[in-house]
# Entry
Amino acid sequence: MTIMPSDLPLNYTGIVEDVTDAVADAFPLFESVQKLARLGVELAFEVAPSTIIVTFTVAPAATSVLPALLAEIDNAQPLRLSSGRLAVTGSMCQGTVTLRVLIPEGWVSAEELAVLTGIVIADPSTLL
# Structure
């Protein structure tokens, strides 16, 4: 799937209908986000022409979801933010959605996060 901005002339009636549709589509998304928030996972969506970015903030009490979540991310890359916090970036939906997962402090080290994302192969003798 490719997301492309439109170069078509503006149709004001169509724009109003598109806004109404977008707002209506947000309600099921809101319900899903609320369910995740109760579990300790917050999502923030940034949607712009040709871009969708989803930022996951995982509470320390919800770290049990991280291994499964990280396994679903394509091209996962661990990184350290300027604040010192660990994060993972990657994509979903054939690269059309960019993901950013903020890792709770103290959950894992940078080296362990690299192993979890498959960037580094762990030496089993150092894991025990």
Summary: DSSP finds three helices and five strands in the chain. Strands lie at 41-48, 51-58, 74-80, 86-92, 97-102. The radius of gyration is 18 Å. The first strand starts at residue 41 and ends at 48.
